[in-house]
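Entry 12.
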Amino acid sequence: MQTSNIKIIDSIEEFAACAEPWNELAGNRTFHRWEWMFSWWEAFQDQGQLATVVSLDSRQRWNGLAPWYVTASPTRGREVKTLADGNACSDYVSLAIRPGFEKQVTESFADVIAGSLSVSPALNNVDVFQFEGHTANDPTIDVLLDHLSQRSVNVETEEMAACWQSALSQSWEEFQQKLHKSFRRKAKKAAKRLHEPDFEATIVDDPHSIEEMWPTFVQLHQQRRAGLGQVGCFADPRFEQFLRRATLRLADQRLARINLVSYQNQPMTANLEFDAGDCVAMYQTGMDPEYLALEPGHINFTMAIQNAIQRGFRQFDFLRGDEPYKSRWNAERISLYRTRIVPRRWKPMLRHGIWSAGKNVKHWSKSIAKQIKS
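Predicted 3D structure (tokens):
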């Protein structure tokens, strides 16, 4: 569907055919790329209705992209969300816009959000637009919110779990010196173990090898989750399909790999990581709890960071989650936020008020429960 300088991608067939212009705007941002978002929609299209907005110039060239889909429920109404949200944990979410067109494109998108520009029935009478996982100073989101401040909408932003990113050095030895003395000993011990005959490190980065190693990676991830008393994301076959296809497609572009460490020929720990410009992002890890005494987590991260340094990357991103171990690897916290934009109409405002009240009650209940336990 197309209206003036706006095109709506609302079918999976259209989505499948637009990898090239999509990635031209997404660039090296993994969680914006077509391989990531299309793979997610293939697996989770039962979540709602595809309604991605593309801003075009007079030559039909893509200048901007809002990768949206719409969900509907009796209580929360019609919500517009970013593709690959929720348990996909897509970090650094934004709009994909050609440099130099930020003001023009975000103004069109602001008109769509405010309801003054009708481009698709799917985007009419929306109750809330949500951006989940953006940074505080994302320039594109900032320009969009500036436009929206002049329109009849309410904007609410809250902090989420953060990403953690570590600046890499020119060598592993130099990087180790940045670590706290007590943790430095653990990193040195892990590096030493990687050279012992009982330990074997394997790195695969081509689609065929990744597909062969995939069941082992999934098993290690699920074993670790089970050891923590959790179900694990791969219990949902849709998630397994999404991540496997996304990883294989990114590997086809040399943007994904699996690192595996075996002990006495048995898989011990593994991680899945993606390349994003000068940064390596560790998306998921797994380990066999039977080997916890060998500190497989330290071995896993040591292998991954050493490899990133050898390949010339400047940053190592542990991605979302405020686990204590991340700061021990000299990583700095990057806050992520969820922004909800509510049109000032009585029904969206009422639904948002009920949603906010329910959320506050939930937080209050958790706080009371913690106080009782303590």
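Annotation: The mean pLDDT is 92. Residues 200 and 265 are 8 Å apart (CA to CA).
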